[in-house]
Amino acid sequence: METPFSRRPATARVIDMQLPVGTDPASVRARVSAMEKLLERSLVIPGINVPIGLDGLVGLVPVLGEIVTMGMGAYIVWEARNLGLPKWKLARMGLNVLFDTAIGAIPLVGDAADLVFRSNTRNLRLILKHIDKHHPETRVIEG
């Protein structure tokens, strides 16, 4: 006799997301776009429809949160460096991450500022402009 408790528990559903690992511009575009979405737009606050990501959520943890999000933002700058962006653009991207970290370190005010100043989105725009100009074969038509 089989009881309802003898069945195996349901396994968790795994979301399969494959990111390319190459160093070509198309792979970099996919990785940086995925990181930006994770950091800035992975969730939507219900009712007011404001996108929020790990940058805003992890930033609520006082010191460790800012260190973690700064490291993730620095990854985007590192990808840009490997792509060959000019030094002045890399400096601008680094200042975006530094400003976001400095503002985020202020309790309460910094958490609200994370919703307004999205350094990773700004850095993504800089990278995509560079890729579209110097590697037009990697353009993605969205619509």
Question: What does it look like?
Answer:
The protein has 143 residues and is mainly α. It has one domain. The protein has helices at residues 25-40, 54-58, 64-83, 87-104, 109-116, 119-134; strands at 43-45, 50-52. A two-stranded antiparallel ribbon has the order 1-2. Strand 1 and strand 2 (50-52) form a beta hairpin. The longest helix is centred in the middle third of the chain and has 20 residues, at 64-83. The radius of gyration is 19 Å and the shape is globular.
Shape assignment: globular
Alpha-beta classification: mainly alpha
Tally of DSSP helical segments: 6
- Adjacency order of strands in the biggest sheet: 1-2
End-to-end separation in angstroms reads 56 Å
Uncertain segments are none
> What is the average of the pLDDT values?
86
Which band does the percent of strand residues land in?
Answer: under 5%
Q: What's the total number of strands? A: 2
Q: From the alpha carbons, calculate the radius of gyration and give it in angstroms.
A: 19 Å
Order of helices and strands: HEEHHHHH
Q: State the oligomer.
A: single chain
Q: Name the helicity range.
A: 55-70%
Number of domains: 1
Let me know the largest β-sheet: 2 strands, antiparallel
